[in-house]
Amino acid sequence: MASSAALxxxxxxxxxxxxxxxxxxxRSRRIAPxxxxxxxxxxxxxxxxxxxxxxxTLWGSPGSRSPLVDWYLHxxxxxxxxxxxxxxxxxxxFGQIPALRDGDxxxxxxxxxxxxxADCYGGLDTPAKRADANKWVVWANASLDPVLFIExxxxxxxxxxxxxxxxxxxxxRLESVLSQREFLSGDAFGVADVAVASYLLFVPIFxxxxxxxxxxxxxxxxxxxxxxxxxxxxxxxxxxxYLAERIESWVA
Length: 252
Ligand SMILES: N[C@@H](CCC(=O)N[C@@H](CS)C(=O)NCC(=O)O)C(=O)O
Known about the structure:
It is built from twelve helices and six strands. 48% of the residues lie in helices and 8% in strands. The chain has a four-stranded mixed β-sheet, with helices on one face. Strands 5-6 form a two-stranded antiparallel sheet.
């Protein structure tokens, strides 16, 4: 049987960014599939996980948002110990997940954890690089999440704003940004994409009937992210294959 990586690779051509209608002033560089699937974060930004002293422990669970942190750790080949939410050593002050410990450092909040990993292992080593990536991480948590997932006062997810007849402004603007670029920060896949694409991809996991067909550039971007091997490692090959099929049906 073909591996999930091989099956997902079959979707690559479908999810390539369509060129903008009006040709850009500079001709965009064509990205070969190998580079497209490569480790954008580490390779492009010079971070070298193999040199880092990693003693990373991640408290999380598959049925939560914590696999988004697993995704980024897998992208960067940072080894980590996975612990369950109920583990008595979970350092999260509110008893939630995800939470991360790395040596003496303890971090909670998925966005803060991503930014810490990017800092230490992803090569975000200047304020300018951090700003360019972290603005998307904060946006994903502060602005995109509440639009995509409508919760009641007890924090239960009731519906998705992606179902609304009128396109939410956040999705309209994101669609416009993604009509111009392959990934959100810099030229390569990175922490900004883990943060934003994770939330986008949670929508069809929660709501099988919600379609992104009216945001085709966003849908293809979701496709480019979901076919990454590290996504399958974190969320499971079956989930990735299911999502790739759904996304393909929107953009075919
Ligand atoms: N904004 C937080 C949300 C954390 C959160 O709500 N975690 C959920 C799982 S996705 C949780 O731990 N729920 C159990 C609880 O609140 O006790 C983040 O992004 O890390």
